[in-house]
Amino acid sequence: MAVSPGRCGGTTEAGVDTRASLVEFLERAGGEPFCDGCLALQVGAPLLEVRAALAGEGGPMVRATGRCSVCFRTLEVTRIPARSAQRPPS
Ligand SMILES: [Zn+2]
Fold it and tell me: What is the CATH number assigned to the segment(s) 16-82?
């Protein structure tokens, strides 16, 4: 059952839900980098909304030039470094 909260509030700020979706997706991706276009496809949000969300507070998200793990183009990508992957067991 799909639940869509916040519809009756009337003041849902554009980009907040998108940003939360991006963070959740990137955390689940375990540090894989994604370009803006592929992120938009992955979270099902308009590209403009994704870019607006990414342009806001950085938070856990890291922006850098790199290769997108979906379309393999080298451009500006976004990822969330996986904490558990930063220090592999020796
Ligand atoms: Zn891509």
Answer: 1.10.10
